[in-house]
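Notes to self after the Tuesday call (sharing in case useful).
The group wants a holo model before anyone commits to mutagenesis around the pocket. I volunteered. Ligand is 6-O-phosphono-beta-D-fructofuranose. Logging inputs and output together so the record is complete.
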Amino acid sequence: MTDPVNAAWSALKSLPKPTLAGLFAADPGRFETWSARLDIPDGSILFDWSKTHLDQPHGDAFLALADAMGFAERRAALFAGDVVNPTEGRAAEHTAQRGVGNEASVEAAFAFHARMQVLVEAIHQGALGDVRHLIHIGIGGSALGPALAVDALARDGAVIDVHVVSNIDGCALEAAFAACDPAATLIAVASKTFTTTETMTNAASALSWLSANGVDDPYGRVVALTAYPEKAIEWGVDETRILPFGESVGGRYSLWSSIGCPVAMALGWQDFVAFLEGAAAVDLHFRDTDGLDNLPLRAAFADQYYTRLKGCQTRAVFAYDERLALLPDYLQQLEMESNGKSVTADGAPLDGPSAPITWGGVGTDAQHAVFQLLHQGTNLVPVDFIAAIAAGDALDPAHHRILLSNCFAQGAALMAGKESDDLARSYPGNRPSATILIDELTPAALGALIAFHEHRTFANAVLLGINPFDQFGVELGKDIARQIEQGNATFDPSTEALLAAAGLSA
Ligand code: F6P
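Result:
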């Protein structure tokens, strides 16, 4: 690390660390200072960081760190479509999918989207006959985003009923088969590389299921979503049903490309466009806003405060919205696969922690399961609460009122704590949380929420000096699984014994 970087970290470490109570006592108006509203199409998102330990001195010192780490230059490189993934020699052009970025890449994305729109609308209009179900087969970034978006936005009824299947465990695919009429089912094979074992195995089994259930031309029922169309053609998919996207769109950032096809299939094209527009609003904010007003950057400052200055090993996200139940899973891949690294972008060992472990769940369920530890456990866990002001249900408004009351109560309780002579009944308090409040869970709001987290993840990577766009950590396990499958290698005694116990020895 260069000197200005060390100096910035030293300054951050040496600053006084007031308690949350102390911060509010010194500045009762801190909600005004540490909350912000981000405008998105047809609404806004309110972010409240006043219950975190960020204060002006830390804000200023983090800005000095961001300067020292070249934040403005790295952000400009991201949006310019320059190589920001040096280990793989690639750009990271997910924002271009939303219309913000390198002009040529934006145009290319627009052309790919136009092709997708034609296919989606043709299917909706019956060009492929009776289509009522779509089994979307992918894994990781080729499944988590579609699963989240469809679950969040299509609960009131979908144009086409979508089932996302990722696991190689056949139980996952069987559950989808049980819910679908094979005569009215399309299979989307979603894989950036079109080589992933789980996806290709599941896809082959889905074709066998169609064929075993009377579908004459199973390949005719397949849509391929991939950055390598030639591999899909080789596999047997007709070129007219291949929806390509650019290689510079990373797997866990690919929801905005044709990997998002099931979202358009379920919701209709206009809602998919609204989803992209919500994300684009955040892109423009992130690209064009400097200093603490840049909200993904500010969120990253809070993340670094807890990870680097307080040694927190995890961060938790609780969606007080049943429709966002899959958001923690999505954020786990986004944050942990991007920033769970031990090496800097220059190839040097990292001199401190990188990404914390992202975990979470939905409120109020989680309150009755894991919140004990948040309130009284020995781990300090910074928490994000995410909720919508408008209810997603049509039941007695008491449901939503109680849901939101609980959400706000948890943040208040974590911060205030409560003294008692009985230690078992005392709460230490001074535990941080941030709250993200959307007006209403619309396609635009979900797009904005996801894009906010993408940019927050990028900002964290810049502050740490790491490359968030590669994922070599997943390769070794894949290699060993391949060797086991091939049956011509030997392993450690424990693994050998497990293979023998399961009848998998060569
Ligand atoms: O193994 C990790 C990973 O490469 C993820 O980054 C990616 O989202 C997932 O696998 C699926 O990859 P593909 O879309 O190429 O099938």
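Two things stood out.
The chain has a mean pLDDT of 97.
The longest strand covers residues 314-320.
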